[in-house]
């Protein structure tokens, strides 16, 4: 990769970390646009997501925006799905992977237009069931229905790992809209969670193919720096307004990915 490509990934990491994303929705398309084979771009993307996760989590932890307990509960099924997704990706053609990625990007972009305040209000009603896991986050009590959470998060891990996406673009809106987690906590927790998902997916990819370690390590520095800048800025910005801009940005990436789908094969 040249200087321009390194800079583009730095910007991608900056934009992604604003919203607790790993950046996979940007890394994989960017690499493919630069001529990297999809099956090589996906594991490299997962490696970079792991790097930005470490970078962003260091910042969000200091700001007390990471709920470790809730993150680990939701990430357990996601990580399992990601491991299988990484293994299965080798047996799916690049063209189908592009279509899967585009659909996930469209879903993530549309999710970003939902109002997190309305979702939070819907989840305040107390529910009683052995399948409901209750947890106190700051001044709110979240209620996770394990019958919904486990299959949803496992599916997120499976599909996003196949295309080299950490799943942050889906995890944040899912945590806010389905589970009523406050947006700032969802962003910070997602930054930590995407690293675990990426690590599991990367292991799956390596087990059936491999990773271009030279390219991945060369891209580590710009991605780490971008993650630091974006996450620090995120703490001080109106994330509800920014999430809509991010939604538009993701939808544009999905659109251009579909246009160039034939060249990804």
User: Biggest sheet, open or closed, and with what strands and sense?
Assistant: 2 strands, antiparallel
Assign an overall shape.
globular
- Element order, helices and strands? HHHHHHEEHHHHHH
Uncertain segments = none
Radius of gyration: 17 Å
Q: Give the strand order of the largest sheet, numbering strands 1, 2, ... along the chain.
A: 1-2
Tally of distinct domains: 1
What separation lies between the terminal Cα atoms?
20 Å
Helix fraction?
over 70%
Query: What is the averaged pLDDT score?
Result: 77
Number of strands: 2
Can you count the helices? 12
Structural class: mainly alpha
Strand content: under 5%
What would your notes on this structure say?
The model has no long low-confidence stretch (mean pLDDT 77). The protein has twelve helices and two strands. The chain has one domain (3-264). The radius of gyration is 17 Å and the shape is globular. Strand 1 (132-137) and strand 2 form a beta hairpin. The longest helix has 26 residues, at 183-208. The chain has helices at residues 3-17, 24-33, 38-62, 68-88, 94-111, 116-122, 146-162, 168-177, 183-208, 213-218, 220-234, 239-259; strands at residues 132-137, 140-145. The protein has a two-stranded antiparallel sheet with strand order 1-2. The protein has 265 residues and is mostly helical.
Topology summary:
Elements (H helix, E strand, L loop, with lengths): L2 H15 L6 H10 L4 H25 L5 H21 L5 H18 L4 H7 L9 E6 L2 E6 H17 L5 H10 L5 H26 L4 H6 L1 H15 L4 H21 L6
Antiparallel strand pairs: 1-2
């Amino acid at each position: 990769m040249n200087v321009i490509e390194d800079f583009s990934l730095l910007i991608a990491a900056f934009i992604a970390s604003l919203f607790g994303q790993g950046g996979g929705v940007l890394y994989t398309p960017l690499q493919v646009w630069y001529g990297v084979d999809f099956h090589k771009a996906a594991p490299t993307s997962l490696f970079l997501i792991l790097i930005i996760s470490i970078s962003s989590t260091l910042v969000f932890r200091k700001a007390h925006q990471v709920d470790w307990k809730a993150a680990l509960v939701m990430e357990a099924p996601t990580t399992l799905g990601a491991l299988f997704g990484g293994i299965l990706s080798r047996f799916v053609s690049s063209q189908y992977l592009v279509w899967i990625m585009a659909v996930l990007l469209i879903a993530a972009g549309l999710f970003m237009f939902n109002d997190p305040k309305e979702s939070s209000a819907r989840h305040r009603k107390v529910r009683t069931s052995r399948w409901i896991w209750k947890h106190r986050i700051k001044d709110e009590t979240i209620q996770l229905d394990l019958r919904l959470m486990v299959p949803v998060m496992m599916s997120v891990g499976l599909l996003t790992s196949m295309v080299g996406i950490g799943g942050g673009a889906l995890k944040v809106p899912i945590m806010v809209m389905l589970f009523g987690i406050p947006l700032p906590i969802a962003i910070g927790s997602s930054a930590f969670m995407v690293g675990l998902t990426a690590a599991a997916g990367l292991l799956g990819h390596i087990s059936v193919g491999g990773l271009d370690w030279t390219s991945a390590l060369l891209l580590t520095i710009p991605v780490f720096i971008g993650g630091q800048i974006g996450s620090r800025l995120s703490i001080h910005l109106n994330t509800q307004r920014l999430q809509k801009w991010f939604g538009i940005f993701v939808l544009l990436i999905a659109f251009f990915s579909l246009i160039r789908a034939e060249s990804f094969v």
